[in-house]
Amino acid sequence: MRSRYPVAVIAGLLLAGSFPKIGIAGLAWVAPALILATALGKGGGESFRIGYVAGLAHYLASLSWLLLIPYRWHSIPLGPATGWLALSAYLALYPAVHSPLSTVHGLPGTNPSWLPAGFGGLLARSWGQRTIWAISGAALWVALEMVVSRLFSGFPWNLLGSSQYQMVPLIQVASVAGIYGVSFLLVWVSLSLLSAGLMVVLRPTLRSAWVGEMILPLTVVALVFNFGFRQLTADAPPVRTLKVTLVQPSIPQTLIWDTSRDRERFGELVRLSEQALTNQPDLLVWPEAAVPSYARWDTNIYPAITNLIRQHRAWLILGSDDVGLPTHPAHADDYEYYNASFLVAPDGDFANRYRKRNLVIFGEYVPLVRWLPFVKWFTPIEGGFTPGNRPVPFSLTNLDVKASVLICFEDIFPHLAREYADDDTDFLVNLTNNGWFGESAAQWQHAAGAVFRAVENGLPLIRCSNNGLTGWVDARGRLRQVFRDDRGTIYGPGFLTAEIPLLGPGEKREATFYHRHGDAFGWACVGIAGIMLARRLGTMRRSSGA
Q1: Residue 356 annotated as catalytic
Q2: Is 408 a catalytic residue?
């Protein structure tokens, strides 16, 4: 019995290998089946534990960059290690739940003695039952991804579909079903492969029987690829473009926390921007955390920004902290603090402001700190931000351009990003700071998930990061340009200039099915999962009654 746990660990590590930096996308087509194969024939509790071990191995490996956060508690990296272990332990519950609800129990079936018990039970079902089993397993996987994207403010990092971000024809289905449609296909094919493999092993006399297991999912995959290729060839040349320069200052997180060096790092940012502005862009973009202090209120930073912009007559989008009075202040000095972005007009006027809505737990706010004040000792933040309450479009009025800004990891939330894409929005902008995690896989994993926001909403996405990945994605999810430093990496300082396609004057973008209807496919999978759970509970009650 214990021999299955090492296999579960291997399955989890293979799943982790499908995501950047390793990024072998094909592993995501087989790892879900291997996890379930490891649990086949086991009872509910044992299946749960096997799925949990696989999930824990996956998340501990794929989220290991959390250990690079430069925070120490009494010279011990307790905060990062605690966060890494706690987050991985929580996320592992999702594959753990998937295993007992998707495995086959209580069916007769024979298999060779060298094959673990329970494998024959799958083939004891009819072809139709096995097909329903594979589709239901895929729907359940998607339902769990829908939950993890929302529960406890959500953490949709490394959703299974994001492993395919470079398979551009495949991911066009996200314009209909969101990233969840790609996850569904991966799991459906994976479970069908498991059935086909068992057919070959257990019924070798029926040489072509395995074809029946694969014909339906492969037909759907072929149709999806055909749809994707048609989408990619349907693009017309842009009517007009916007010249945008993205500045990547590559400020170490320890320097961001060192307020005594604020003037030094801001001076470097301005010097780098002056070099970038020699390209005469229409729009200059600074990432999250590039500006120390409060850009709008600091008496040294504010005039430096306005003078720079007036001199070069360009628009500027920047990330900076913000401060304001609450709606009902309890005291005269009762202020709220925000992670914000600002739009600065060519005349130096701060024309608009967006305040981040979805905050990072333990990074931008500490839950339950009022009742459990000791919790803040394990985080690198002293206070916390207040969330914003709505998207704010940024209009570059003299250029007839409209953009929407997402800050930090807001661009990995499909349902959130959809709210920022109006019919006349020209592009999305993500300002982020992944300097917390050094030169790790976090930057690539973040960008891989963000690619799908472009496809889902049919909009280009500009990403300006403190230390990578800075670049832009077109409306079909193609990474058009990525900044690389003198070493050839995405992490160092520098800038990138790009021509971003725009809508024609007065034109409105044709909305994708996903943008119009949101997670209709995902909610349908939640409904299927609910039916599966109800049937399983009913079976358990009948068994206990007998």
Answers
A1: yes
A2: yes
